[in-house]
Fold:
Amino acid sequence: MHLFGCEIKNHKNILALGAESNGNFSIFWNNIIYFSEDFGDLQDKSNFKKYKKELSDFIKKNKFKPDIILSDLHPNYIATYFAEKLAKKYKAEHIQVQHHIAHIFSAIGEKSLETKSYKLKAAIGIACDGTGYGLDGKIWGGEIFRIRTTNNKLQTDRIGYLENQILLGGELAIQEPARMLISILSRFLTKKEVHAHVKKYYSKQEFEILYNQLQQNFNCLETSSTGRILDAVSLLLGFCENKRNYKHETIDLLEKNSTKPYTIKPVVKNNILMTTPLFEYLIKNSDKDKNRLAATAQLYIAKGLWTITENHCKDIGCPTSKKSKRHLMSNVFFAGGIANNKIISKYLESKGVYTNKKIPRGDAGISFGQILYHLANPWN
Structure:
């Protein structure tokens, strides 16, 4: 258990239960944030048992009684069900916090604790990961938020995101990147051309079923996930198989095999980073060095996120350098599992964007972000 002193005045005891894939919990009590270890995927019964035991031991030992219980917005997370159960037990208020907003506030919170500056006037937050339940019911994962305090209330507006692509077969597309590749390539290639790129993974009959499923939009979900885009790139370039042996395997292999990128300008339309043009470029240049194409794809994402972010600098009052006439990013944050990608994070950090140093950038930092998001709202 890690302890962080927090000088935000709040008389309520807060318990945050985090997300699911890297489950952990945080507690705000007597101006101290107690931050637990990462218990791993809570769908694993033994992990969830350890998670509940450590929380139960803390509550009993310290006679802690939560007034507020925070959980992820996803209705089917184990931690969400657990939050509902504990809220009834302790007669506490149950509040759900959107996944990517919590990611961003894990970074905002870390910087606030470092600088002891807790008054958040305005900021921009970038959150990139695999999947998170969005405020519109879609699957998010490549989001940009403008964060402001107006009329003594915290306001978070989604101002940009990655182009929505289709999760063919829902969550099965997370385990089989070729499903993602089929849906993306189908936007600009013929059926025969799409099949040529995935025939090593599916028989002709299997492909026909998947292609028809896509055309009929059956069990197909829209997603702005950065992780799924990089999964598909990794598969297209031949760095991974059509399966995942661990959570970030496909993206780790993509980064590991990256060298010097080619030059390509990201396509941004109405604050949406278009990802279909990236695949058009990769297909058109498939005869080029695959290692350089790998780096190009990741940098395309980073530059596109930066383009949208810079377009909104004036919204948060970022000062402008007199020499370069570029905005100085003193209040922009990047978090989420993809923030662990060195190519993307290094590019954004070079522009002055803040990334976590102590609190995990992925889901293991969600509970900390949930706490800081709640504490940052003067309304609470």
In short: The CA atoms of residues 18 and 366 lie 5 Å apart. Residues 166-223 form one domain. The longest strand covers residues 122-133.
